[in-house]
Amino acid sequence: MPYFLAISSLIIIISSLSYHFFSLNLEGVVFSLLSAIIVLVLLVKKGLLNNINNNLKPKINCFKLFFLKIDSVKDSFNTFLKDHLTKTAIWKKNSFWLTVAYILFYLLALIILIFARNNEALISPWQKVSPWFFVVYFLATIVLFLLSRQNKKWLLIPISLHYALTLSVATIVYGIGYGFDPFIHQASLEYIDKYGFINPKTFYYIGQYGLLITIHKLTFIPLAILNTWLVPVLSALTLPWGIKKISDYWGIKSYLIPLLILILPFSFFISTTPQNLSFLFLLLTTIALINIRDIKNLVLPSLLAGATFFIHPLAGLPALILVIITLSLLVIKKKPWLYLVIGGLFILNILIIPLALLISGGGHLINFPWSTFFSTLSLNLHFPNQENVILNSVYFLSQNYYWLLIILYLMGIFWFIKNKIFNLLPHLLIILSLLISYLFSQCLKFQNLIAYEQNDYQERILYASLLIGLPFIIIVFQKIIEKVINSSREIKIIGLISGSLLLSSSLYLSYPRLDNYYNSRGYSVGASDLKAVQWIEQDNNSSLIKWADLIDSNQSDWSRKNNQEKYVVLANQQVSVAALHIFGFERYLNTKEDPIYFYPIPTGGKLYQHYLKMVYEKPEAKTMKEIMAWLKVKNAYLVINKYWWASDKIIEEAKLEAQSWQNIDNGTVWVFKY
């Protein structure tokens, strides 16, 4: 695993640099890949990647390096067979039958998700997933808890599979795609894959793009598949291993810890975006810094932190400062003046993220919103009692998550201070500085973000601090596990059932929800959205294009061949990303300021503000004519989804002044032409 993380980080770093100075065409990808391999071999020969697995020899040739992963898999498989094909394993530990039971429950849960897969516009995957899925998941978790009491290396395999199942619900259920941002990054990937770069060149996001395009050109796996599965699969592969390494370092010989961590919120690992991938690499950096005894051991954490920076600086800057503070503490005995450096880094970490957001995010300063801030920071204990026992219990956990996290962190920090264990001092400093940074960031307002997205960046600072503090939670979980294991049989059974229920509840809460307590509101892209985009294209160009041909053809080439008239569409963000999914970033309209995409992207842009005016005030032809004159187009369209608030009223008003209209899928989507 250290080699896998190192080569991945090197590809991210080198491909990002190659992108900025050249491009990510075939030559750039080959250069990045070969450079990454050469650097990896040099690091291995120097013995600089052995801080996590101390049993590795300091020197290893390229042939051994190539087959190291294969040998590791063979050893795990042989161990698995040895444990399961002996009478001791079957009759004394029952591990064979527990494994069979887990596989059956796992496959049944997977089948339920596959049968729930659909192309409708959904608020929540749970609208289509059978409730029996939670029963099966609960039973699978119980079996896996029983299996995890053994200290067998092969247990990481079923635990990783459980992570994969837990993190892949949205990926499996949403047939067209989950979320908003993944569609934008998918279009960016396709553009870079075709042309080698996209303007303007930025320092953020490129780390993910470089990694995915390198894998794509090396394996020929479609970018759409890679962009969908990268974070869930990579998280399932690396997190159980990393968390187990932390527990091993502290002498915790248990596989229960990696499984129990799933009680914590994990929403940022269920879909692939640069921010989510950077959070994963930030967490891996945190894990890699646990067992640092020498400056040479900082190579892998440094690579991970560098990769995090090129994926997304908001997570990368704290990761880099965390590594530098760790380095300073390693040599501080010889150079006491480094205390000043550490203090400076602490202050830098407080200021650097708000400054970066202020400069690059188009933000401006406002007075600190004390009243608003403290009104949202409610520390009251909530006791939901409006629904059945199950839903009330689930939302008791949801509405008191912050209490759970605060208690866990304080207990972990208290234990480390009490036992005078200072190897997590850098983590503690970064957490404290990020919390202060979060307070400072409340003074920022972003002009390019819509109102309900204003706090997104600030909340990501909190998420980063939570991830860096994971080691403190791990030791608390271990103390809880020790108490339960050393208790009576009844307490063990209660602990087993409670842990499985908590994991099942966390699974439900980590995805968008639509129930009597919570409405996630954001719809996914549905097949009707794609059909509406296709119908508008047909209508504007007065030509008949079959739906299948539109999806399979190269849109930019098709557009140039047919010399279509330019047009503009006012629609919500899901219809807009449906257009982006089909046409990519090759449909811009010129204005006196900057070119503007012909659908409203982003939601904070001028075009989306006009859409909001049409749906929240009145869908007047006058407004559309002003937009057409501004953008110099002959046709303009307004798209109204049936699920939009007061859609019936908006549709009837739009019919009064629109030139014509068309409903898609029996009124699921309405298109008005002006």
Name a few traits of the molecule:
single chain; two-stranded antiparallel sheet; mainly alpha; 8 strands; 64% helix; 674 residues; 5% strand
What would you note in describing this structure?
- By secondary structure, this protein is mainly alpha-helical.
- The chain has helices at 2-21, 26-45, 62-84, 87-93, 95-116, 132-147, 156-167, 169-173, 181-195, 206-219, 223-249, 256-260, 274-288, 299-311, 313-330, 338-360, 370-376, 389-399, 401-418, 425-441, 456-468, 470-485, 489-509, 527-541, 547-552, 555-562, 573-583, 606-616, 621-631, 647-657, and strands at 363-365, 444-446, 567-570, 588-589, 596-597, 635-641, 660-664, 669-673.
- It has a four-stranded mixed beta sheet with strand order 3-6-8-7, with helices on both faces. The protein has a two-stranded antiparallel ribbon with strand order 1-2. Strands 4-5 form a two-stranded antiparallel sheet.
- The longest helix has 27 residues, at 223-249.
- The chain is globular, with a radius of gyration of 27 Å.
Q: Structural class of the helices, strands and pairings? A: mainly alpha
* Shape verdict: globular
Helix fraction by DSSP (H/I, runs of at least 4): 55-70%
The overall pLDDT, averaged over residues, is 82
What is the distance, rounded to the nearest whole angstrom, between the alpha carbons of the first and last residues?
A: 58 Å
User: What is the β-strand count?
Assistant: 8
Q: Enumerate the strands of the largest sheet in spatial order, edge to edge or round the barrel.
A: 3-6-8-7
Give the low-confidence spans. 52-70, 84-92, 543-563
Strand content: under 5%
Gyration radius, in Å? 27 Å
Number of helices: 30
User: What can be said about the biggest beta sheet?
Assistant: 4 strands, mixed
